[in-house]
Amino acid sequence: MVATNGKxxxxxxxxxxxxxxxxxxxxxxxxxxxxxxxxxxxxxxxGDWTPRQNQLGWIDSYLHGGVTTMxxxxxxxxxxxxxxxxxxxxxxxxxxxxxxxxxxxxxRIHAGAPVLEHGMVEEDFKELAAAGVSMxxxxxxxxxxxxxxxxxxxxxxxxxxxxSTIHTxxxxxxGSSLIDKDIxxxxxxxxxxxxxGGHTALPDDQIVSLCESSTRAxxxxxxGNEKAALLTLRTAKELKQLSRVILGTDSPAGSGVQPLGIxxxxxxxxxxxxxxxxxxxxxxxxxxxRIRKLDCGIVEVGRAATFVMMDRAQxxxxxxxxxxxxxxxxxxxxxxxxxxxxxxxxxRNTPPATKVPEVIAS
Length: 362
Ligand SMILES: [Zn+2]
Hints:
alpha/beta
């Protein structure tokens, strides 16, 4: 793998690629390289702090779980969050600006995701888009909770290139509400956010119906119902639509922060849902990158040189890293590289990898 200016320049056998003049050389020592993991559903607020459980440094902790890119589903935990239209637009633009300029450990955070409130008009979406806002926070977390209004606003957002995600299932915290299958289908947001609930899932028949009746992305989250996650996976597999499955943690949340949340989802879905581990890794990399329109997530010339290097954890019964994940173990991370720069060496959070890469020249 050769990278230059933060992008993948060449992929192939050593003899076939031009690595002359490389300023940094890394020997993978037989470990496995995957695209950096993407968390499709986070709730950042400001800096590397979350008021939800009052923790500092949570983003840096996720980096040690292989997460190199995060997508905000709304900065809804902001203390005193403004709910008037001018205030919510200002907050979204603030979050978009601050998080695009602030990258703890190199992690890229796509934030600035306003939640829909009654009173918003088409002009607001045009203004938000012109100001650099590219996605909505979870539809249903603001005052707009009916299918018709949600559909109209999601349509305005889409018209100006703003992507949408809808909250699915029971209320997440006191004050939020149920969004059932009919509202999800009526709103027709681009991503069926936490289809396995966050935490409370819809009944099985509604989940199956969402998979069958909609063509939108199926987002499965760590802080949801695991049985419903497996039902979603099974249904998507039967429909031959695994390309719709993307992963998030839906954190920080009431259940805390989960630095290893995406890795845990991959191992859980692979071990209990009977999908090969490499396919489960694609849910959190290529699938999410394609659906969220990101330049990372796939090992391909021209894409961001953003990787996680893993090996089977020490003493895992699995014979290879993929075999270990398919048995339900977490992999050990030996190095994370973001935009062609080494962000971390051996992870402080995963079980120790058997083999780790090494920087041999820099
Ligand atoms: Zn939600």
